[in-house]
Design brief:
Shape of chain B: elongated
Order of helices and strands of chain A: HHHHHHHHHHHHHH
Radius of gyration of chain B: 22 Å
Number of domains of chain B: 2
Strand content of chain A: under 5%
Distance between the termini of chain A: 12 Å
Helix content of chain B: over 70%
Strand content of chain B: under 5%
Structural class of chain A: mainly alpha
Helix content of chain A: over 70%
Distance between the termini of chain B: 17 Å
Oligomer: heterodimer
Number of strands of chain B: 0
Number of domains of chain A: 2
Largest sheet of chain A: none
Number of helices of chain A: 14
Number of helices of chain B: 10
Largest interface: A-B, 51 and 39 residues
């Protein structure tokens, strides 16, 4: 028990320092940005003194870095300047994040499932009888998934509309509510967005490779060999021992998913944290930009910490390594 | 290899074409289909699509090369420190790299481009910084694996210094292919980011300068009747990404 607590404390320390490092990186980038959003406001000159003081826009880069860092540490992101003037950033981020979570959570889960299914189909873990076509199919799908998310979203939106339009024109289909994606808010749009988020930008390719390595590593462990020698079923055993590697894979994949989220939300015209981030960058709304970047970084480091903590609790090799 | 061939082909063909990708505006020859004079037809302003396609490759090749150089120098340096020394140094370096990778790559690249400007330099710095941790970790893992190898012990026994063992035997002989593959993958990442930014607007290459992303965007927005105006750059992106991905081994 003491060993577990010690390992958890070390992981927590690593989590805190990494989070602080990521927030510092965001603060440094922000401090180096020339100009500010106050010029973009209609009454900018009158508000300059107040907003400069409020957002630490006065002083040299070092002061700005420290100011942003300390505000981020207190989770005080202030108010939006241009995207939604005067609205508290925390509120804006909260509602946007809730909408994005509806895309992100199924996409993260589906990525893991698709990765492991693809790896198992391709023969990793050697559970299925050898086949010449399965690895080829997985390779073809994986190559297809290398398509950038922006093109996948574009192709999906235009493809759906191009397929539906002739049917509507010939009166074989009454204009469905999901037609003219991306303007319509409909489950079809969310479903397509989740699929693009799951598969595009090499997500599937990455998942298959990581899952393949994981399955091969597990299949080579002595307890799997012993079970195999006894003639017992291997699949349930592998599934039980996949929890920790799957959590680690999910945490490692999260930054890539968050990047793709910005593109997919823009491509499908969906409101959410990704869309808000892009909008705030374009309109130089620094409080929102910094707030979302910090929240994204904290989300990633938290996911990593949770995966590490699961490993400490459930994987005896982690504790043995520490001992 | 196929990615290198593709890049060489793009640059060589661009130099041979008789059309200027930006200046040759001929409204009377707008939206022409593919023909012997214009192999991929013309766009809504009568500009040769092939000339713009080839010139558009520079929008990601130059920043991609810069990003690969930045990530290569920084990644090999930090990876060497972590992999060769191990212990506390490795912990510190990996912690720092972990802080960089905690910020999603697109978010980091956008923040860097906002700080430096939406220019090829900004794109190179953004992609380079986002790709640096991946390359550093690859080098660190490789060196950590090799530093206690028998040939290293033998080289020490023969009286070779650490610097020579590290620079020649470990980095040059055993790691350069790995770094080369990663560098190519970084050029592919620059392409993906450039296409994304150009298509989504604001931070990408602006007309009349061509890029594959803004060619697709303009073709779709102007509703060009020549399908090559969007199909050619989209196909080129897919081909380049496909060529870069297996070579790089990572997304």
């Amino acid at each position: 028990m003491r060993l577990v607590l010690r390992a958890l404390a070390l992981r927590a320390l690593a989590f805190l320092t990494t989070t602080a490092g990521a927030v510092l990186l965001v603060s440094v980038c922000f401090a180096l940005v020339p100009g500010d959003a106050i010029d973009a406001l209609p009454n900018g000159p009158e508000l300059r003194a107040q907003l400069e003081g409020e957002w630490g826009l006065v002083g040299g880069p070092a002061e700005r870095v420290l100011g942003t860092f300390s505000r981020a540490g207190r989770l005080d992101f202030g108010h939006s300047l241009t995207v939604s003037p005067g609205a508290p950033v925390a509120e804006l981020m909260g509602s946007a994040a809730a909408r994005s979570a509806r895309l992100l959570a199924p996409a993260a889960l589906l990525s893991l499932l698709a990765g492991f299914a693809g790896a198992a189909l391709a023969g990793a873990g050697a559970e299925l009888p050898p086949s010449p076509w399965r690895p080829r199919l997985v390779r073809a799908l994986a190559s297809l998934s290398a398509l950038p998310a922006v093109l996948a979203a574009l192709a999906t939106v235009n493809g759906v509309n191009a397929l539906a339009w002739p049917l509507i024109e010939s009166a074989r289909l009454t204009r469905p509510v999901w037609f003219a994606l991306p303007e319509t808010d409909h489950p079809v749009r969310s479903f397509l967005a989740v699929i693009v988020l799951t598969g595009a930008s090499g997500s599937f390719l990455w998942g298959v490779r990581r899952a393949g390595d994981t399955l091969a590593d597990l299949a080579a462990r002595p307890f799997v060999g012993a079970e195999r020698a006894r003639g017992g079923p291997i699949a349930p055993l592998l599934a039980r021992h996949l929890v920790v590697p799957a959590a680690r894979m999910g945490a490692a994949h999260l930054p890539l998913l968050l990047s793709a989220l910005v593109v997919v939300e823009r491509g499908f015209g969906m409101p959410g944290a990704g869309s808000l981030f892009w909008e705030s960058c374009g309109r130089r709304d620094w409080p929102v930009t910094v707030g979302l970047a910090v929240v994204a970084a904290v989300t990633v480091t938290t996911a990593r910490f949770v995966a590490d903590a699961l490993a400490v609790v459930f994987d005896p090799r982690e504790r043995a390594a520490l001992a | 290899m196929r990615f290198a061939l593709l890049l060489f082909g793009l640059l060589a063909a661009g130099a041979l074409l008789p059309y200027a990708p930006q200046a040759d505006v001929h409204p009377a020859a707008a939206d022409l289909p593919a023909s012997a004079a214009h192999l991929l037809g013309t766009d809504h302003l009568g500009r040769d699509v092939l000339a713009r396609l080839l010139a558009g490759s520079r929008a990601f090749l130059v920043p991609g090369a810069g990003a690969a150089l930045l990530a290569g120098l920084g990644g090999v340096g930090l990876g060497t420190l972590a992999g060769w020394y191990g212990g506390v140094v490795e912990g510190l370096v990996r912690g720092g790299l972990g802080a960089i990778t905690a910020v999603p790559p697109l978010v980091l690249a956008l923040l860097v481009m906002m700080a430096v400007g939406a220019t090829p330099t900004g794109l190179a710095l953004g992609v380079g910084l986002a790709a640096l941790p991946g390359l550093a970790e690859v080098v660190a893992d490789r060196l950590a694996e090799l530093r206690r190898a028998e040939f290293v012990v033998a080289a020490r026994a023969l009286g070779l210094g650490d610097l020579r063992i590290l620079a020649w035997h470990l980095l040059w002989v055993n790691t350069r292919t790995l770094v080369g593959r990663e560098a190519l993958a970084i050029v592919g990442q620059a392409l993906v980011l450039e296409v994304t930014l150009s298509y989504l607007g604001r931070f990408g290459v602006q007309e009349p300068a061509p890029s594959w992303g803004n060619m697709i965007d303009h073709a779709l927005r102007t509703g060009s009747v020549n399908p090559w105006t969007w199909a050619a750059p989209a196909g080129a992106v897919m081909l380049a990404v496909w060529a870069a991905n297996p070579a790089g081994g990572r997304r």
